[in-house]
Each structure stands twice: as structure tokens, then as C-alpha cells.
Write a structure and sequence with these properties.
The protein has about 375 residues and is of the alpha/beta class. The protein has one domain (about 60-315): TIM Barrel (Alpha-Beta Barrel). The chain is about 30% helix and about 20% strand. The protein contains eleven helices and 13 strands. It has helices spanning about 20-30, 35-40, 50-55, 125-130, 150-160, 175-180, 180-185, 190-195, 215-230, 245-260, 285-295; strands at about 5, 35, 85, 90-95, 140-145, 170-175, 200-205, 230-240, 265-270, 305-310, 315-320, 325-330, 340-345. The strands form two sheets. The protein has an eleven-stranded mixed sheet. Strand 10 (about 305-310) and strand 11 (about 315-320) form a beta hairpin. Helix 5 packs parallel to helix 8 (about 190-195). It is globular, with a radius of gyration of 20 Å. The termini are far apart. Bound molecules: iron/sulfur cluster. Iron/sulfur cluster binds near residues 103, 106, 108 and 144.
């Protein structure tokens, strides 16, 4: 298999016709486009509604005016450049602004815009902050995809975190095992490094498979390679219109993940991010898909929770009965509120937690 080629100009996509190229290049002026030859080969180009095509190929409806670029107000939780600290024990290092491809439904698409500078190549300020805050016991490398960094930079960050006693867990938020698994399975230097590193601190890969067709033999091989290094693997995915918004797909995804030793961890409701209306599914519709898919699986797949990453913390949808919906503050910025139960009248049109809150009158 040849080296993966990255494509960030829609005009270079031989699979698209000239009309599509014209429309999509307008969309990509707003929200950056990037795919690659490995992922393109998984797409059924004869099907305009192919779910994997929808993951990376723009949709004209992204130009519908909806939501905001930073729907969870992440910027509010950045005490120093390149670091987010919302939950007491967890710090996020925003260490890369590139991914193996760009998911059209990404909630961090603002980071890919030229004018955004939230991501810092130099993580020194973030590391110093973590060093100072002894309550931080786990660090998530994210962005962007940390596995798109060079080995040298990954190892440099991990080496620096290794010296911080109170940090026990390092997480990688990554879709590389779906977007370009060979980049990982053939990276012997990184795999050897992780094998050794895992003897010192626990490493988790928070994988991002959206659809069972992404779990190719190459992806399974890469999962096995990192598991052999002692890395723990879990999966997170949103429920995305046209990608996985049906019970069969989610049931299969949960099963295939658990067969590969990847526990389904979070299933997200799409945030109201600018450009993403076409990918969003109303909360109660998505929850119904989630709960049916989960109920068809073994206990291993039942570890998944359906959550919204709200401004103030993670809200779990725990039940829907008759005309009521039940939420729990699962992981709140103010941890004293964790586990609080919230009950609202059901609202089948709600796309986000705000849609359940009483509207404030403007006088
Ligand atoms: S891999 Fe993650 S950060 Fe990158 S585009 Fe997809 S959702 Fe966004």
C-alpha cells in the first residue's frame, strides 16, 4: 500500500464533478477541507449519500446560519495559552491544529481557521500550569489530532509530562486510527516508545470511530498494535445526521468496537457549532437511537453514555419517559454539582440543553 496522500483542495478531488467542486470550494472557504487517499478509498463514490463520504466531503448546507464557532465556550476555560482546564482533575493541551482529515461536523473547526491561535506549538506554558496545579491527575492531548505531530514532538511532550508526579494518566484524543491507521501501525519508533512509557504512566487512546465501515483490517491492526504497547482504547462519537443516525449502524459500531477491545465510552449529541446544522440530530431522537443500539448489545457495549458537552460541564441524558426527559450533571466544572438530577418537559425539537431552559424575557 502506497504512502497516504493528503488533499486539502477540493479541485484536486478526481471523484467530484466540476459543479460539486465549485459549490464545495465556497464551503471550504468557511470551513477548511482536508481528506486523504486512505479514507477516500473507503468511500462508495457511486452513492451520493455514502456515510463515510459525509464525514469528509463538504455539504452546501454547512452555509446555513446556525450556532456559534465555540459552542461550549471553551475559550472561557483557557487560563494559559494552549491549555484548557474545565474539570478539576483534567487538563487539555491544545497541541496541534491539524488532523488526518477534517470531519465536517467537527466542534473545533474554529481551530483550523487561519486567524485562530488557540493552539500552541510550544506547550511550555501549559506544562508549567499542569506542574503547578497538583489536582490535575490526567492530561488530554488534543486539538487537532496529536498523532499528526512528529514523533519528536510527541515524545518531547510525553517526556515532560512524565516528570510531573501528580499526572497519572495521559490521553490522546485521536481519529488517526480511522483516518490513517498505517501511520500508527507502521510507526515502530512511536510504538516502542509507548510500550516503555506505559510502564510509567497509563496511556489512553480516546479513539473516534463514527461508523463500522471505518473499522477496516488496517484499523483493527493498528488498534491491536497500540493495545500491545499497553495503551487502553476507548471510543467516542457523536450521532451525526447521514453518518450513523440509525439503530443498525450504532448497534454494529458498538459490537465491532467491543470485539476489538475498544470500550464505547461517550456518544455525543452534536454541539450547536456554526456550519453543523446539517449534521445535527435533535437530542431526543439521538438518545432514542443510542438507547436502542445499546440495549441490543452485550454489557461491554453498555458502558457508553449519551452526553452533551455543555458550557458548564457534561450533561448525561439518563432517561426519557412519557413527556419528561431526565438529565444528570455528569462532570461539571463546579464538581460539587456533579450527579445533580435535572428533569424537564420533553421537547422533540431540542438540539441542545439550552432548548430545555425557560426563555428569558427581553424587555
Ligand atoms: S478528528 Fe476530531 S478534531 Fe479533527 S476534525 Fe475530526 S472531530 Fe475535529
Amino acid at each position: 500500500m502506497g504512502k497516504t496522500k493528503y488533499i486539502s483542495d477540493v479541485h484536486k478531488m478526481k471523484e467530484l464533478d466540476s459543479n460539486e467542486k465549485q459549490i464545495f470550494s465556497k464551503v471550504s472557504e468557511q470551513f477548511k477541507f482536508r481528506t486523504n487517499s486512505y479514507y477516500n478509498a473507503l468511500i462508495d463514490w457511486t452513492d451520493p449519500n455514502d456515510p463515510l463520504r459525509r464525514v469528509v466531503i463538504p455539504d452546501a448546507d454547512e452555509l446555513i446560519n446556525w450556532g456559534t464557532l465555540d459552542a461550549s465556550d471553551e475559550i472561557r476555560y483557557q487560563p494559559v495559552e494552549g491549555l484548557e482546564h474545565k474539570y478539576p482533575n483534567t487538563a487539555l493541551l491544545l497541541c496541534n491544529e491539524v488532523c488526518g482529515a477534517y470531519c465536517r461536523f467537527c466542534f473545533r473547526k474554529r481551530l483550523f481557521k487561519d486567524e485562530n491561535d488557540e493552539v500552541k506549538k510550544d506547550v511550555s506554558a501549559g506544562i508549567a500550569y499542569i506542574q503547578k496545579h497538583k489536582g490535575i491527575d490526567n492530561v488530554l492531548l488534543t486539538g487537532g489530532d496529536p498523532l499528526m505531530l512528529s514523533n519528536r514532538r510527541i515524545m518531547d511532550i510525553l517526556d515532560r509530562l512524565k516528570t510531573i508526579q501528580h499526572v497519572k494518566v495521559i490521553r490522546f484524543g485521536t481519529k488517526m486510527l480511522g483516518f490513517d491507521p498505517l501511520k500508527i501501525s507502521e510507526n515502530k519508533v512511536l510504538l516502542d516508545y509507548l510500550s516503555d512509557y506505559s510502564l510509567h504512566k497509563k496511556v489512553y487512546f480516546m479513539l473516534h470511530f463514527n461508523h463500522p465501515r471505518e473499522m477496516t483490517s488496517e484499523a483493527l491492526h493498528a488498534i491491536q498494535a497500540i493495545q500491545t504497547c499497553g495503551v487502553i482504547t476507548v471510543n467516542q462519537t457523536p450521532i451525526i445526521r447521514g453518518v450513523n443516525d440509525n439503530v443498525e449502524t450504532m448497534t454494529q459500531l458498538f459490537s465491532d468496537l467491543s470485539f476489538a477491545g475498544v470500550l464505547p465510552y461517550y456518544v455525543f449529541s452534536c454541539r450547536p457549532t456554526a456550519g453543523n446544522f446539517t449534521y445535527a440530530v435533535p437530542v431526543e431522537e439521538a438518545y432514542a437511537i443510542f438507547i436502542k443500539a445499546r440495549s441490543r448489545n452485550s454489557g461491554l457495549a453498555k458502558t457508553a453514555r449519551f452526553v452533551m458537552s455543555y458550557t458548564d460541564g457534561k450533561i448525561e441524558v439518563i432517561a426519557k419517559t412519557g413527556n419528561k426527559i431526565y438529565f444528570k450533571k455528569h462532570n461539571w466544572a463546579n464538581s460539587s454539582e456533579n450527579e445533580e438530577l435535572l428533569v424537564f418537559p420533553s421537547n422533540s425539537k431540542a438540539y441542545w440543553f439550552d432548548d430545555y431552559l425557560p426563555k428569558t424575557e427581553v424587555s
